[in-house]
Design goal:
alpha/beta; 9 helices; 9 strands; 35% helix
Amino acid sequence: TTVAEHEAWLKKFHDKMTHLLGRMPQRVPLEVKWESEEAFDKFTRHKIYVRSEESYWVPVYYFVPHERDEKAPAIICLHGHSGIYPYIREGQDEAERKKTAELSLDYAVYLAEHGYITAAIVVRGWNETHGDQDPGVKHVERSCRQVTMNALLLGMTPQGLRCWDAMRVIDFLHSRDEVDGERIGVAGLSGGGTLATYLPILDERVKLVMIAGAFSSYRTSIYAMPHCICNCLPGVMQYGDMAEVVASYAPRPVLLINGIHDRIFPVAEAREGFAKLQKVYQLLGHPDHIDADFFDGPHAWSNNKTLEFLRTHFGK
């Protein structure tokens, strides 16, 4: 009910969350490999690798608009459990390309077309990083189960480890002359939305957050029904719900995106969480920094409000 109460709660909660997200890898010097580039009408897409650990490089599709301010805002884009290709309009078959269009998965490309630098990360455990497990195992299990098991054995979590990779990509963005380091945001859908929810806790350089298909309540979503194991952050329900997680980095601008027909992240609890967050942002003097797009659709992305939200908080 007061700013002092909020700050006292925040310190305790933030410490708990950083502990729950697990031990982080040992930092190595920033190194980048530039593999390829391809020019499109409105942007150039680079394929790069950013060194995250001694023996791991993060694959990134780096989109740089042709028309932009000298230093432009940049958005880290995190994909969900369809892998990277539908998210960069590179579906390998007709079904993937159809999925991209129907669910608006290509937000990294869309935002680049509208002047924002975007970095679409191949999330650890997916596509070229999934390893050589038994090909008979389902792809989602092959992609996330082993990463989760290995991370937990090492005192880490898949969420923390994948956020670490995003943090190293932010290191890369800060090294680039075309990027405004004070205007870096994160956007994610589904499993990528889960990572977008946690990344601002670990990295204050994330100034804006767009979470799609991942915000509701732990009790009615991840706890109540089958989810990929990588969505489970051990112990988190002891300390708070999703609204508390987002409140821990208020008043940074946050846009919540939820399809009202999303069956795995129920919209009723998303609305309740949004109402709680509105009170927090009001208390902190920035009621305009929290917004929601509860759109008529399924478990998907929506661009109904993204450009307006970005213009408001990051400029044109």
